[in-house]
Amino acid sequence: MTILTRRRFTALASALAGASVLSPHVVRAQTRPRLVIIGGGFGGASAARFARLQFPQVDVTLIEPKTTFVTCPYGNLVLEGARTLPQISHSYDRLKARGVNLVHDWADAIDPATRTIRLRGGTALSYDKLILSPGIAIRWGALAGYDEAAAEVFPHAWVPGSGEQTTLLRRQLEALPDGGVFGMAIPANPFRCPPGPYERISMVASYLKKHKPRAKILALDAKEAFSKQNLFQDAWTELYPGLIEWVPSNRDGRVVRVDPREKVLETEFGTRHRVDVANVIPPQSAAKIAIDAGLANETGWVPVNPRTFEATRAQHIHVIGDANVGQPMPKSGYIANSTSKQAVASAVALLEGREPPASPVYFNTCYSHVADDYGISVVGVFRPGETGFVETPNSGGVSPRGPLAERREQRRLEALYADAWYASIVEDAFG
Amino acid sequence: MRSSGVAAMLLASVVTTTPALAQQQQPSVPLIAQGCAGCHGQNGAGQGATPPIAGTSRDEFIKIWAAFRANERPATIMNRIARGYTDAEVAALADHFAARR
């Protein structure tokens, strides 16, 4: 224990008093380099938390308009009724308690030349390094008839916002007559959460089987193949026989026009499918801010250096999550989380004149629920290649196929591990 | 030429910073272990049905990993994951989680 003499105590007290005149924030901003993160989803929240835990020498600011984040993962279980919206909503309070500066405002524009962000509230914020994790934008109008008003009739429930879209679709499902048709329009690649539409088919089927056994799902797809296809289709045949019709693009499954007034989904060759409820998962691009800043290429997504995630079109901006060109990595929460750490470590290394960490591994598992106590997964282990990302050969892949009677324990455990994944990933991002 | 420039810069940063600060600049957790946190909880402490891996001895960790890789141990997904990592990476993971309690 240190015993202070009166004289030393007085000197210390006046030094402290002097220090308190300056706001600690100002002192920090002057002495510590500034890492700013735009977007508080899985990518941005994980980046902020990781930066705060691992790099005390940088100042960390997270810009996110919402005070509560509703996850896309497990949204399909809310539709089914197995979860509630509050159970998939998470606050930023714990990040704040860790010392992340939370700015609840919209980042409207980035000027890469001056390293400045313009906030909707009117202020500007400067950065030394920027982690941009803005997520996706819906390409309104890319699908004829599908605009913001149409989404109030045919919900997308794909950008969770504060949960309004998921709640709307759930209400429509509850109001669906037994014997009615639940239509879906599923987009071409790439889009957020590749197995998501098929988990949604499964969870809606689970609800219908329990509550409206005469209703049907008509899933119209712009693709001929999809993630975990065999596993999903095996499960649909076994658990939901006659309930699900999935129509691939080569059998006129591609929806080209929607008519919310007539409740019609129209496909490529002019077939007009009348439905009672429709979930339209529309074509997507990187979020507007990334496109406005000139970071995206002609595909609408942002090319990045596969080792540092720095945008190929702008220095000092590292773009992670669904907005970047990540193929063959999926646009998933796990990939956003996993890559955020390499991006942050690279940004800090570059800030300090060091080499970014060598030989990173980007890890993904996407679990999907297809029924109660029934989970399936796809695993991917990725690394940077010459120009893009490369999946590690002879690794990863999907759960084993086989009838439920033989695979019951595997399916049961994967459903439990999916729940554990959700808890773990949320902790690693928001905890 | 370029790499010697980087080396000189690194050297300069080492000699001009205090040991404590130099330590701060590197993440205290190997990046490779970060992927595990998505299922196995913080620092491998376990989460729900997913078992803890923290505190597993180095040898045991490497042995279990090899068994997953060879499909010689009952697995749901770890067999698929195990095949994606090199021996050196598994050793780094083993060192990291052996040191966690």
Q: What class do helices, strands and sheet pairing of chain B give?
A: mainly alpha
Task: Write down how many β-strands of chain B occur, each being a DSSP E stretch of 2 or more residues.
Answer: 0
**CATH architecture assignment of the domain at 30-98 in chain B:** Orthogonal Bundle
Largest sheet of chain A: 5 strands, parallel
Helical content of chain B (DSSP H or I, runs of 4+) = 40-55%
Name of the CATH class of the domain at 30-98 in chain B: Mainly Alpha
CATH architecture of the domain at 23-65 and 105-138 and 285-358 in chain A: 3-Layer(bba) Sandwich
User: What is the CATH first-level class name of the domain at 23-65 and 105-138 and 285-358 in chain A?
Assistant: Alpha Beta
Per DSSP E runs of 2 or more residues, the count of β-strands of chain A stands at 23
Unreliable residue runs of chain A? 1-29
In what order do the strands lie side by side in the largest sheet of chain A?
5-2-1-9-19
The pair of chains with the biggest contact is: A-B, 45 and 33 residues
Average pLDDT number of chain A: 93
Which homologous superfamily in CATH is the superfamily of the domain at 30-98 in chain B?
Answer: Cytochrome c-like domain
The CATH topology of the domain at 23-65 and 105-138 and 285-358 in chain A is given as: FAD/NAD(P)-binding domain
The gyration radius over C-alpha positions of chain B equals 18 Å
What does this structure look like?
The complex is a heterodimer of chains A (431) and B (101). Chain A is of the alpha/beta class. Among the domains of chain A are: 151 residues, FAD/NAD(P)-binding domain (3-Layer(bba) Sandwich), CATH 3.50.50.60; 134 residues, 3-Layer(bba) Sandwich (FAD/NAD(P)-binding domain), CATH 3.50.50. Helices cover 32% and strands 24% of the residues of chain A. Chain A contains 11 helices and 23 strands. A 5-stranded parallel beta sheet of chain A has the order 5-2-1-9-19, covered by helices on one side. In chain A, strands 13-12-11-17 form a 4-stranded parallel beta sheet, covered by helices on one side. In chain A, strands 20, 21, 22 and 23 form a 4-stranded antiparallel beta sheet that branches. In chain A, helix 3 packs across helix 10. The radius of gyration of chain A is 24 Å and the shape is globular. Chain B is mostly helical and 101 residues long. Chain B has a domain of 69 residues: Cytochrome c-like domain (Cytochrome Bc1 Complex, Chain D, domain 2). Helix content of chain B is 54%, strand content 0%. Chain B contains 6 helices and no strands. In chain B, helix 4 packs across helix 6. Chain B starts with a helix and ends with a helix. The N terminus of chain B is likely disordered. Classes of the chains: A alpha/beta (431), B mainly alpha (101). At the A-B interface, helix 10, strand 20, strand 21 and helix 11 of A face helix 1, helix 2, helix 3 and helix 5 of B.
